[in-house]
Amino acid sequence: MSVTTRTTARSVEKYRVTRSRRNVAWTGLGALVVVVVLALFPYIVYSGTTTIMVQAFIILTLASMWNLLAGYAGLVSVGQQAFLGLGAYFVLILAMHGTSPFAALPVAAIGCGVAAVPLWWLVSRLRSGYFAIATWVLATTVMLVIEKFPSLGSGTGAPLPGLAAISPTLLEADTYWIGLAVSVLALGAMYLLLRGRLGLVLTAIRDDEVAARSSGARVGLARMLVFVVAGIGCGAAGGVYIISQLAVQPSAAFNVQWTAEMAFAVIIGGLGTIEGPILGTIVYMVLQQTLASYNVWYLIILGVVAMAVAIFARRGLWGLVDEYLHLRLFPVGYWLWEPGSGGRRGLLRRRGGRPG
Amino acid sequence: MDWVNDVIQGILTGGLYALFACGLSLMFGVMKVVNLAHGDLAVVGGYVALGVIAITHVPVLWSFLIVVPIMAVLGYGLQRTLIQAALDRSVLTTLLVTFGLSVVIENALLQFVNADSHSLGVNNSIITASFSLGSQIQIAWLLLLILVVAVVLLLGLQYFLSASKYGRLIRAVADDKEAAQLSGVDYRHVFGIAAAIAVGSVGLAGIAQGMYSQFAPTTGTDTILLFAFAAVVIGGLGSLWGTLVGGVVLGVAQEIGSQINASDGFLAGYIVFLAVLILRPQGLVARGAQA
User: Fold this and answer.
1) B72: in domain
2) Extents of the domains making up chain A
3) Binning pLDDT at 50, 70 and 90, where does residue A356 land?
């Protein structure tokens, strides 16, 4: 009796639950500073640099979305290029009808989210590997359907109208800002989603799908939500892509190489962490820029490294950082502190996020 | 009469697609591995055949005697190293690793060979010739041969798995690898053998593709893997007979599609695939639950 009372009293007094092991107020501030500095880039650096950065923003957005699918919902999609292509073509269609491509981008992204619902209905019948190839077939089918429209340039593609009036310098800066905005929004939305109820449901599914189902978690709905969000994100990235290229070609927009790039960035950076895709995108861009004059060598190297990481260091580069520094820039789980210790050894366990 | 011809041509190409799908079906059936590098391995088979023919000057038709063993050894090696290592981790890892392998193979071929299309020219006139049925139907001997090879391969595999001692071992391991291990079976070796058979058949598919049309580094993903997969899903997951039926249905759908509009063959094939996914997700030849 007295023991119970004492334990209860103790736990009320001493057990603490925090979002992160460290105080993250400064990382939030740091993120804000990084975004502000990045937003000032067009005034500081050469235009060649902003062009490369736009490419990095596209990869970062795509990688974050692929990470949400594969790292959190266990859905390995090899067909995310379907949404990239659709996003680009939606922007093209709206621009052909007189809308500014920049205004068309959010609409196109939402359109991709809407398109994701029936596509999810088709592929959700299949699991794991079959799901992967089915999404691939779907992406190819969407491309073949798009190629049926002569007004969209059939198989050769079409230039993007509506941007001729803007001066090239301003257009470059605008493209950069929209790329930055899309990737910041994608990361922010993903962070908020994973912090909330959806994150908990996804963690429960990952740990034990049957148990999650029997506890009332709506597994199918959670997965569909993730697929739709990923569709919106990849669609927005497609919008940035067509604005940065000023033209679109079906075989380039619907190329499976997009999925290869996003998947490699995620696997190398760290599957199932928000920070992983950021790190992975940096690795990807550095390799791609360094080896730019050696054709596809960067993809071969990235592929080999990704395979090695998938087998030997499953949590990627950020997993290593987390293991040694216990650092989370975007904490989505919880820490439980043992009473009385308070110090370094106070950690009992972590809930949510990836198990450490 | 046109329609009859389409159906017959479709059935003949269906044999090629069933040959594509055989290895994919087998690897999933035994190891529960969906090999995303399947198509690229077939293209590697085609390139190996090119090399073997250039070095040894064997006739194209007989090159499989050398190519298939080479591919089988490659399959065993891949299974015992990369794929087994991934399998020991998780299903997700096998997908990541085979996808990585697919991209690496494709880009390595682009980097070290080139992007050109190659074909395995068949100089034997009996093979390039065709015979006619009635006035409108022409049947190419080569396609008929490929169809026969596909049927013989699938029949042989079915017999091997259900009747032979080693086939029983493979099925035992596929059913429950821990229990098989307890009975003294080295399941990793059995997986290796199954992969050797699968990749050997993939080599055959690569040669068939090279003889029938042509292959380039990207053929593996944009044609072979997707067609093989469509055939497997249409027919029904995990059934070798279903694979043959699926290949034939896909072939007929493509022929009829391209009859309606010359460029719509592929689209028609995929629409049939999606229709099967909606109306009969267990496949036309249903057996057991879906994967």
Assistant:
1) yes
2) 35-351
3) very low
